Amino acid sequence: MTADTAPAVPRPPARPTAAPVLTGAQAVVRSLELLGVTDVFGIPGGAIMEVYDPLMASTELRHILVRHEQGGGHAAEGYATASGKVGVTIATSGPGATNLVTAIADAYMDSIPIVAITGQVFSRLMGTDAFQEADIVGITMPITKHSILVKRPEDIPGAIAAAFEIASTGRPGPVLVDITKDAQQATAPFVWPPKYDLPGYRPVTKAHGKQIQAAATLLAEAKKPVLYVGGGIIRGRASEELLALAELTGAPVVTTLMARGAFPDSHPQHVGMPGMHGTVPAVLALQEADLLVALGTRFDDRVTGKAELFAPNAKVVHVDIDPAEISKIRTADVPIVGGVREVITDLEAAFRGLTGGAKGDIEEWWAYLDGLRAEFPLGYTAPEDGLMSPQHVIQRIGELTGPEAVYAAGVGQHQMWAAQFIKYERPNSWLNSGGAGTMGYAVPAAMGAKVAEPERVVWAIDGDGCFQMTNQELATCVINDIPIKVAIINNSSLGMVRQWQTLFYEGRHSNTDLNTGHGTIRIPDFVKLAEAYGCLAIRVEKEEEIDAAIKLALETNDRPVVIDFVVSADAMVWPMVPQGVSNSYIQYARDHAPAFDEED
Question: Cross-referenced PROSITE patterns, in alphabetical order (predicted)?
């Protein structure tokens, strides 16, 4: 037998590479790295200190030290909303974790994918009222998609991987992972990818064909259809599919507060934002429609007004990936559970199959809506006190900056004006606290958005009340080279509360004056405060100074910019539907409501 024909000597089987043994704290950091995380926002403390030691050695994770845990949570939200990725925030036990609760609740209401990692006291001390102990899993259970308590180091990779999957799939939302200190200190083999089980968690993305066909039939037959678009279009990355469906059907489109930018404002089929402060055409389009195709929206009370009087003659097709939302407020004639992008694609094909691509008989409907657009354009009147109009300030910010920027708003009048008077042309360009209405959201959310999208201009449009809740994150921005622009719409008051007091409480302005604006003692002086934080600070009190200040802010990228726009306290948000009545009673301005046919 020659050497060429001799049988090969069998080789011993390759030894499996032994899993590295890591501490639980190291496993946290390594899991985040392997999940592709690049940025986290947090503050160390006693129960999470173990994680911060290996975090310091990581070359793949950028940790941004915030000044308050709520700021870290909102920053994670802004990061997620602007980028579509999962935002991550870290806090210690007890007050550190409870300071995250507001941001977690905010993310839950607005379907924002964030993962909050908190430290917990030693497992043997749990339930003893140990120092800085709080049952954060129990506290957050109603406001998270899932809350996980980890007591063993070997369970950490699976818990974090599961948290990311739950946060980012189905209807997105926050997930909390609480890790005891002994789990962080102990060691275990680090196995990746980890195995984990999510019993019962099976988000449905593909809808039932019969429901799609039924929806297409209603849409083809409707004389007054409306595509009622919610934030699910943005979360579901379905803007392109929405545009195709809208242009195929010719139906008018309304975009809710959470859906601004999901459909281009410049498109002729866009009739505006509906709701309490929506445009007259958008509000009455929903109210007088014969068919609502609700896409990724939840019939929020700020949109419907008095729910039993909302769109009384309309049939409803309701599309949502969360089955709990279907028929929760308004019974759906055609309920469709599924991913909104897949559903719209199927609905477009079904509609085309039924109609051959021809639009429905909706000319009269459009004539009516175009008449409303002509008669009730979005606008404002100059304040009578001679001070600047906040609407004009915000409109100029949008016009001079453009649609490629990201705009984050606080909560209140300035939020509504930012939704109304800035033109949004793309998804993920508008950040706000819609469901929870969290004052203090804007500055940290803008900070997170700028970290996620460093090449974009990022504005925080804030009120003087909101700004005083989280402005300490300006220190975070300066130290970490995060050059956001902040526009304080300073009416020296809690503006939206003041508006309601003017309209419904006979002008009794109880505890709404903040003493920050025109003719007051200016505590704090926002220019001095911003300068103390190392920002470029500008005060604008005259209309002719507005554009120059905005342009200077846009030209300044070596530090954050804060502009104190001193505006009138008497400006109000219009249109407005008073709470608890039919949307048909929308007021275009004070004592000015459009006529409508109550019998239609």
Answer: TPP_ENZYMES
